[in-house]
Amino acid sequence: MQTTLVAGVDGGATKTVAVVGRLDGTLLGSARAPSSNYHNVGINRAAKSIRSAVLLACRRGGVPAKDLRTVVMGLAGMDSPKDFLVGRRVADLTRLGERRIVKHDSVIALYAATLGRPGIVVNAGTGSFAAGIGRDGRAIRAGGWGNIIDDEGSAYDVGKLAVRAALRALDGRERKTAITDLLMRRFKLRTLENMVHEIHERPMTVDEISELSKLVARVAVRGDRVAREILAHEGQVLAGLVSSIAGRLGMTRCNPDIYCTGGVFNAGATILNPFRRELRRSVPRFHLRHPRFEPSVGAFVLALKDEGVAVSGRVLRNIQASHVSVG
Fold first, then answer.
1. DSSP 3-state assignment of 287?
2. Do 294 and 110 meet the contact criterion of CB atoms below 8 Å apart?
3. Max CA pair span of the chain
4. Number of Cβ atoms within 10 Å of the Cβ of 194
5. pLDDT number for residue 146
6. What is the spatial distance between Cα 117 and Cα 114, in angstroms, rounded to a whole number?
7. Exposed, middle or buried: residue 24 (CB in 10 Å: 0-12, 13-18, 19+)?
8. How many helices (H) and strands (E) does the chain have?
9. Coil, strand or helix at 225
10. The pLDDT value given to residue 225
11. 241-279: string of b/e by CB count within 10 Å (b at 16+)?
12. Cβ-proximal residues to 150 (8 Å cutoff; 6+ apart), any chain
């Protein structure tokens, strides 16, 4: 007996995550694959990653991929009408399901956090963005314009500022920082000047620079002033993204739920305290909450919605109950 299946895909700059499930909300399988940001890996590799993740999720769930009907793909780098044209081409190349729907990755993160209810999500991962749903159901976003021209508050930006701070300390333009020693050990450098060679020779990828944000968080916890200043700056920038969403949606005075996602927030109080202080300047009261699910499940929720399924009651309970087993 054929069972209608839907899938949700989080196609990020670092990895691709897919979940597959039934219309009753039961998640059956999940899987990961490499990046599917076409800006970074190209159209064909992006499609291959998405297809691999979904097919593996189906195998793990013991269901045939031919039963897939709707597949929602939340893709990084969907920042312009042209990007969406390319994104739809990527989706079609996967040959998955009967309907293939492309969304900006902020939208699936938003639905993973709020299930479509009013609220704001701010992401500080490889890239950065904020997105919100107002009381009228309108969804908007801010930021996320890519690492070349934007993405302040992201792990990439933290990593870039870390290297800059170390090199400026070498020049005597800024105070010394423990970041220098960590960079020297991380890249096995004899002199810090060789860091420039490491960055430009291959060159270093966005993911590799983003990984350096973990070094900043490590020394910030130990009290390094430069590292703490970097994270304080990023916290203020992320608060500005949330403030812009709250203002545009008329939510500055209604105690909005705000969901923080992305690895940069793992730095804890060193970024969250500056984030809170800055946000209170424009949004006096708010509730910081953990997202209900990962973005791939947000894409799954949107696939159910496209099928006319309301994510509440039994359906929501099924997602919650099966989420742990496939996560």
1. strand
2. no
3. 72
4. 14
5. 83
6. 5
7. middle
8. 13, 10
9. helix
10. 97
11. bbbbbbeebebbeeebbbbbbbbbbebeebbbebbeebb
12. 128, 143, 144
Q: Which amino acid is at 90?
A: V
Residue 14: the pLDDT is 81
SS (H, E, C) 166-221: HHHHHHCCCCCCCHHHHHHHHCCCCCCCHHHHHHHHCCCCHHHHHHCHHHHHHHHH
Which backbone phi and psi does 47 adopt, to 5 degrees? Answer: -65, -40
- pLDDT-based confidence at 147, cuts 50/70/90? confident
Output the pLDDT for position 236: 98
Phi-psi region of 100 (alpha: psi -120 to 50; beta: other; left: phi over 0): beta
Residues near 261 by beta carbon (within 8 Å), at least 6 away in sequence:
109, 113, 121, 122, 123, 124, 125, 291, 295
Dihedral pair phi/psi, residue 209, rounded to 5° = -70, -40
Block residue for tokens 């195998």: 59
Residue linked to tokens 């690492």: 147
- Bridge partners of 258, per DSSP, are 120, 288
